[in-house]
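quick one before i forget lol
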Amino acid sequence: MQCSALRKNGHVVIKSRPCKIVDMSTSKTGKHGHAKVHLVAIDIFTGKKLEDLSPSTHNMEVPNVSRQEYQLLDIDDGFLSLMTQDGDTKDDVKIPEGELGDKIQSEFDDGKDLLVTIISAMGEEAAISYKEAPKL
């Protein structure tokens, strides 16, 4: 996608990392060139801030980012055991580090049914949030 077509809150690949655009500005065309687009984006997995400066005509890769909710079945050895919509189990997502991981662990230990939101892009996956499953 051309730089000039990117929008704030959209996704873009910077330094081969999938990022969410938090700020962007364009500079006027100079005497010898094209308008430049300055992107400030945050890595959707690490939360690190990345910046990029490219000509507005430059093509940039846009990652295919998807979110999926899974039911949490178990937490085993630092990994979440999740149930997919098809009833299969998915055991390859690590429990997130820090406060989110601690909260998921303690709510799960309290015997609550949890739904965990997993974001995936470019072959990587991470848990980004959770909520208590509605009681049936």
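fyi The two ends are 44 Å apart (CA to CA).
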